[in-house]
Amino acid sequence: MADLKIIGARKSFGAVDVLHGIDLDVKDGEFVVFVGPSGCGKSTLLRVIAGLEPVSAGEIEIDGVRVTDRPASERGLAMVFQSYALYPHMSVRENMGFALENMGLPKAEITSRVDRAAAMLRLTDYLDRKPKALSGGQRQRVAIGRSIVRDPKIFLFDEPLSNLDAELRVATRKELAALHAEIGGTMIYVTHDQVEAMTLADRIVVLRAGRIEQVGTPLDLYNRPANVFVAGFIGSPQ
Ligand code: ADP
Ligand code: MG
Question: Per the database record, which ranges form the ABC transporter domain (predicted)?
């Protein structure tokens, strides 16, 4: 688990400014949700935090350590995307343990980490199956399991449920909430789904066109939206 500090983060692609100076503190163990319309920079902000894109200006700190120039592999983060690319020829156990093998962990340690994550995600009975013999929700849980076994300091989720149908979204969302309650990790979660944001978040960050419009608890934003945009996005009556 870890704190995350974003200080004046800017990102441009060529002449296009996508992030206009983002300041944000995320506390250890917090579940923070980024919301905002398509194209407002949610994924870019996540990729900048992850180290998959360099910032154009500003700083990123994890646990008080400047990681701005460090590659993704040295930031202790795990990222779960909406398109969960599992290896089709590998079993669930192999998919979940693959990264740990690459890290050179002993076999017994890999087995115990995978078993623990599988139990949390209700995948114990599916460990010997191939991805094609799983439902969409189970596949997404394997993708989440792959990140859990690495014991990351911070989890980053980019619209992880958006490929699932409505019923599965609700079920998987509840699992994510339970998971957070159980492992207590610092989680940053991108969605454009207001219900997901309101039910999962300790705090919501509302983004518009590369700027933060407001940061607050779901109740704060609902009861005291800073402006009409936030009110409209959160679904508040104001
Ligand atoms: P969101 O995730 O909120 O939908 P993105 O972060 O994906 O938004 O994109 C924000 C803006 O940045 C969009 O206008 C998008 O076209 C642009 N953008 C994102 N990635 C790149 C890139 N690699 N090169 C050029 N423009 C990009
Ligand atoms: Mg996106």
Answer: 4-234
